[in-house]
């Protein structure tokens, strides 16, 4: 592959950051909708789940009054339009062009055949607004902020729509949009989605075994090839080649040649080790990657950071005592930056890395010896680094770290690792390493909270993923205490309840020297999926969830769109389906699984059992083809065609390509154009591919 290939591929990767796609209930500030403490809003008719509190409601009322509309029919329409900011889908309604808007996208046509919106939205609301309000004067008109076809009359704050737009067509070309399978529009009423029959559960998942070794992390190579990086908990990373399905070949990985060996730096134990790896979005250009691991400061001088048990969170490490023989904060959680070695002409061709740290991103001492999470991921839409951290251990989070915004324990953090702070900035902001705070982090300007926090109230997030088709779907499995294992849909400033709640159930800690948080003082976001401990094999005596992926491969079309997760101990796999689509409402059920009779490597079966013995299911992985893998104690397994295990799937032979669904016959408006990042990606991919064939 030549340099021209890399330029094109890197450009395509950058294109994915241009336009976010919102496809679930989400507010314009990227926070989750909520139920206000008051019974209902006084001005806007949004009861139940909304994006407005009483202060927002009052602000919208004041804005409406300042517009001073004399016509009652137009005033009624304008009120509903202003109140659309309270809609639980307001992120989609107001930011379709990824630029903040004053007016939501107004439905200007009938709903397309692949729309998820209810039939109430079949009216041409944009035309109704034009016909009713075109000749009505408005002070400080919200429509005047988008002048696409007219000029504000001089020396006047009062405008009519006809002063700014020559026709209904011009007006609706700016503000209108159709509802389709990927976006919503505003029809004058709160957005609702179609309730459809949930898809039939799949017959089962067919697996093939392609590796015998145990790994904790799998990351596809950023160059888009059939290679992937695998790492184990002990501290090694390997670069492997993934065989084509049907080839009968196992994973090509040389155990004697590690891409990076950090076993001297990594402290390995049951809940310690190399916990995560992540490759920079421009890895093919800069060769940068990041490793999350545990270290022991008693054995390694470079393992030294601030203790998470400190006076800021009313915790004194001298009062904790040893935990499993370790002193408080003897073990540390680290994120460090590395780079490929310089022997390769291009970063993508490198087969090894320089073992010396380029930069220490983060170091934090751990008060106890469990619940450290440790996974790291780059956000597909923002390019920031997300870091999943547990509550630090101790039964019931005794110091209430997960709810304390002055603590980074029990949180998902978000770093800008491309902007290196000065020493003064690190000291003044109280940072835990060499990174910057993204400006839109929810507590970036809050002096009483840790600025790194993106979400809170987590016990031990164990394996998170972004949906490759809808990046706003950020799903994390969170390990429970005694009763419930949960899957959470992560949003900005989302509070997932621990230790006030364990999943959907109220929780009371038996020991709380760090105090408690009252249920009335938080807005908990409850799990979208999960299971009770009683649902898994009681003979195991334990339960611990392992998060996976929304399945986006067409290898098993009957699994497409389902979120897969598992239990570490019980050898059980669940599939979760969303209904209605784009609603954020999921139902899940166990899915049978078996091993293909022609698996490249033989699967092991338990005595008197027809189910393959996977042992511990540590993690899931996904390659560049979107095929999903299980990383287990007994080896690496890949999901393959269901017919190889004699599972029935009517869709398996229906089509060998992904159907984009029926296309709309309507020309896109300016308001609905370029809605989602992947639309741009595929359109420009095709164009650049042609350019590549001709000129590179």
UniProtKB/TrEMBL annotation:
Q: Where is the signal peptide?
A: 1-23
Keyword field: Signal
Keyword Signal carried by entry: yes
InterPro entries in the record: 6-blade_b-propeller_TolB-like, Glc/Sorbosone_DH, Quinoprot_gluc/sorb_DH_b-prop
Report what the protein is called.
Answer: Glucose/Sorbosone dehydrogenase domain-containing protein
- Origin superkingdom: Eukaryota
Q: Which Pfam families match?
A: GSDH (PF07995)
Does the keyword Signal feature in the UniProt annotation? yes
Glucose/Sorbosone dehydrogenase domain sequence ranges = 256-526
